[in-house]
Amino acid sequence: MDARRVGRLRGDLCRFLKLFDDCFARSEGRDHLQRYVCGQLSNVRRKCVEAMADAAGIAPRTLQDFLATHTWDHERACDRLQQLVAEQHADDDAIGLIDETSFPKRGDRTAGVQRQYCGATGKIDNRVVTVGLGYANQPGTFRCTLDHRLYLPESWSDDSDRRRQAGIPSEITHQPKWRLALAMLERARSNGIRFGWLTFDEGYGRVVSFLEALQRMGQAYVAEVPVDFHGWVVPPVILQKEHSRYARGGRPRRFPRMAKQSARPNRVDRLCAYSYPMRDQPWQDFHIKNGRKGPIVWRAKVARFQISVRVDGAGNGFTLPSAPVWLIVAKNPLTDEIKYFVCNASASTSIEKMLHVAFSRWHIERAFQDEKSELGLDHFECRRYTALRRHLTLTTISHLFLATVQSTLTQDAHSVTADAAPGEKKTPHASATSPRGRRIDHRMHLDPCSKA
What we know:
two-stranded antiparallel ribbon; 15 strands; alpha+beta; 13-stranded mixed beta sheet; globular; 2 domains
């Protein structure tokens, strides 16, 4: 990034934030938006409200009120962000990413805080957990988060005193994380976002109701599933009507139903190890991507698979097979780690494509890392629900600006490489990102106290 490009960043940011003007009824709110985003983009070490306010030369109480009590439409701001992504970064093969992240907090008064499991540390701690929806284009040159939703544990549902102190609206109740993810997906689609694919880990993949909802939406997915996920590799026999010649007394049978001679659903790890469609199939090596230490290769097998679906209201143990999907077992040849995935793609989809999507979750993990290390996503010190919701929305706005700048720099770097004369060394500028996703340190580029 040259000096001229650095000098334009402030103007670019002002033009970007003006797209959110109609989310604020007063000019003070627009000014606070610029101060908050500039503070998150600055080189302030800790991006809490007090530090950002001091850097901007205003009273900390001003930004605290901006988050907690000022009248502005943060839900409309979230919609506007998604509409901008749909307009400016549309990609028919874009990958939607669902994952959760957590923030350590002390005490028991912050909205949603509870002792709960943290995947990053692998232990139970006092934390606030949010479910995030990410977006990445297929070239991998653009990624951002589209939304964060606070996960409210069951212990908060009936505790009216804690809810009142944390300012949690009555309509916000405990919901499973997969329902939060589904609500975010539906909202993104209503704002024009279209995902060619959706991928998520086994915490969401184990929920058959979630997979069925995605199927009804017509959304292609590659879902990691746990080893105890059940189904059939060999299709079971399904009866649609009574075939006995003699009348049968007692309660009438429900149809469709599985024939008695059909095999029971089994775990995917056992199916991959012992069923003949998988057992007799040789492993194939697939190049996933180039990592920092060289190419990343996984071995895989694939077969048609039907998920075991429990029929509502049919009594205990009444299950039917789903429509056929793909079952993929992938093995790391270096560590012998094994992962299982199900995918509802068409029969013509290549295994390479499905594996590429399956191993794309690093995009949202990197997005969370960038938001925490560069933008202070986990530096918030507010306790009330509205303030926390607004902080999450403002962080996604700041992240979208950074992602847009980074995508532009990457495209410029590719243009320089493509336009180089024959025989000339094709080396992009050192500050541009490489296609492998090396991050840029943006904090030195924008000072919230500087003049445009």
